Amino acid sequence: MKALPPESRDPVCGMDLSGSTDFVEAKVAGGHFYFCSEPCAKRFKTDPERFQGEPMIHLHDVWKVFHDGGVVTEVLRGINVHIWDGDFTVIIGASGSGKSTLLNMIGLLDKPTSGILNLDGKDITATTDDERTVLRSEKFGFVFQQYNLIPWLTAYDNVTLPMIFSETRDGMRREVLERHFGDIGLGERMDHRPTELSGGEQQRVALLRALANDPEIIIGDEPTGNLDSVTGDKILDMLITLNKTEKKTLIIVTHDADIALKADQVITLRDGKTIPGHLRHTKTYTD
To answer: pTM value?
Structure first.
């Protein structure tokens, strides 16, 4: 098989193809390009100019290593990933594959042991904790499997809490928030505390909290994992609607291959590394 040029990377998903013998070659607009799989090649052909530009998020050779006494655990092992503005991206893989750790890197909740993280074309690997806090409040909204609501605050106060740390804290009036609560079926519940809400209602409050600062990027770590299938589908539909109608970049970690099938891009992890093939592997590595 033809050898790849040095430092070859899939322009769509960012995967390092160096040393790979299983790749797709395509000639597009007069140039030769190499892809990890047919799904990436097909995406590239829909908009070659876009995928030759700068992705919103770019992880280059990112490692995360934990030390516990004399035990060394390599959780991420040279991750190369592109995430594009406005995409719905799913991170999928078996338990222990590094999904949540990768999400923490993308969401600036943790720093790589080594490697480079670019956001909007800027290397932010060496930013301080304070700088990362500001970036998170300006760019990201988080929806976790655990709702993480403060029990002594009302639903309304939980939603407005992120505004304390953001310049938008004076920009969203109560009447605007009341409309948002009504939109998700909680108009009569905004002054209730979490213990007075069902699991599905708490997750909807958590979703509103994630949107309080109008983030460009919404991150979900198994956001429907603790919900029944009907409620989980409603939450997922709300997230996908935000992605499609408001062009929010949506990044979700999940074990659910059916969710992955709805995504624009799938990042499949195994043993701390991305593997080629993406969608064709989603049924294999979720057990």
So the answer is: 0.87
**Residue 249 has which token pair?**
């970049």
Residues 43-81: pLDDT tens digits? 999 999 999 999 999 999 999 999 888 889 999 999 999
225 and 169 in one domain? Answer: yes
User: Average pLDDT of 251-261?
Assistant: 85
Residues 76 and 24 in one domain: no
Q: What pLDDT does 284 receive?
A: 42
First to last CA, the chain: 33
Give yes or no for a contact between 60 and 80, defined as CB atoms under 8 angstroms apart: yes
pLDDT at 78: 93
What is the number of domains present in the chain? 2
CA proximity to 194, closest of 236, 161, 232, 171: 161
Claim to verify: residue 46 and residue 120 sit in the same structural domain: no
What does the angle CA 153 – CA 190 – CA 136 come to, to the nearest 5 degrees?
65
Q: How far is CA 17 from CA 2, 14, 33, 122, 275, in A?
A: 13, 9, 11, 24, 10
User: Is 165 inside any structural domain?
Assistant: yes
CA distances from 202 to 143, 177, 222 (A): 11, 16, 15
Domain harbouring 224, CATH code: 3.40.50.300
Print the domain residue range for 152: 58-281
> Do 170 and 40 belong together in one domain?
no
Note whether residue 37 is domain-resident.
Answer: yes
Tens of pLDDT, residues 257-278: 788 888 999 999 989 999 876 6
Does residue 287 fall inside a structural domain?
no
Q: DSSP 3-state assignment of 90?
A: strand
